[in-house]
Amino acid sequence: MLSGEIDGYLTYYDVDDFSDPWKEPESVLLYHGLGRSVDVWYHWVPVLARQYRVLRTDCRGHGRSDPPRPGYEWSLSSLAREARLLLDRLAIRRVHWGGESLGGLIGIQFANDYPDRIASLTLCSTPYHYSAPAQDEYRRWPGQLEQMSVEQWYNQRADLRFDTEKDDPEMMQWFAALVGETDAGVIRSILRFLPDVDVLGLCQRIQVPTLILHPGQSLAVPEEDAQTMHQAIQGSELVQFPDARHHVFMTHGEACAKEMLRFTQSHGRGART
Q1: Which pLDDT tens digits describe the chain residue by residue (273 residues)?
Q2: What are the residues whose beta carbons fall under 8 Å from the beta carbon of 251, sequence distance 6 or more?
């Protein structure tokens, strides 16, 4: 359990490295989505940490990272900057970025703002913009979060994230409790800007190898939007999980991690510390 000061805030992170000790491994940064924490990557770390130094961090106001003070600017650029400052603190020159949902959007911003700090980009359940049905749903959520707990809010539309008839109910219960620990004000603040995000222009400027992991049953990322992103990011690779819901990074976590491992090993660019 590690934390460091970033812009006056304590930022939580974990580092796992089970690579051969006589080698200098490349670095991977895993960045979670809205309401999550580093703990959601439990499927991914065992797959990746045998070959890479794996860094996971809690987004501002999530998990064990400090909440923002009044006046904090919530934006993809602010969150990407905090990730860069964390890499500076740890003297990590370049990373293979793996992000799910919001974490993927921050990765797209990071790849544009700090292209010399990124070796490859893996985007899991990441939209370039939110579909009209998703925007309508997300804009209702801040009001709901004023009427109920975060866990209750999350559980009322669990079907958007999981196949509630097929996926492990204990896993879904664990995940809902984890999300429930996030402050409602943090989630509301992010939801004020998130539905209007459109990063298609940023996608067109990405210059690093990019892997897109697409869940076929995601409200946030319809099939046509995944194809549009694939076409926008020059040379990108699209891997689809047709029957998965938005939280494919959980329900198909090991398979997703293996896809990232395959991709990063074939596109390694010396992300050394």
Answers
A1: 677 888 889 999 999 999 999 999 999 999 999 999 999 999 999 999 999 999 999 999 999 999 999 999 999 999 999 999 999 999 999 999 999 999 999 999 999 999 999 999 999 999 999 988 889 999 999 999 999 999 999 999 999 999 999 999 999 999 999 999 999 999 999 999 999 999 999 999 999 999 999 999 998 999 999 999 999 999 999 999 999 999 999 999 999 999 999 999 998 654 343
A2: 162, 163, 167, 171, 244, 245
- Quickly tell me which residue has 């198909």 as its tokens: 252
For 128-131, which contacts have Cβ atoms below 8 Å and span 24 or more sequence positions? 128/198, 128/199, 128/200, 128/203, 128/225, 128/228, 128/229, 128/232, 129/197, 129/198, 129/199, 129/200, 129/225, 130/194, 130/195, 130/197, 130/220, 131/219, 131/220, 131/221, 131/222, 131/225
Query: Please, what are the domains in the chain?
Result: 2-135+198-266 (3.40.50.1820)
User: What token pair was written down for 13?
Assistant: 């992170």
Contact between residue 199 and residue 221 where contact means Cβ atoms under 8 Å apart: no
Q: Which residue has tokens 């797209």?
A: 108
First and final CA of the chain: distance in angstroms?
20
Widest CA span of the chain, in angstroms?
55
For strand 118-124 and strand 210-215, is the pairing parallel, antiparallel, or unpaired? Answer: parallel
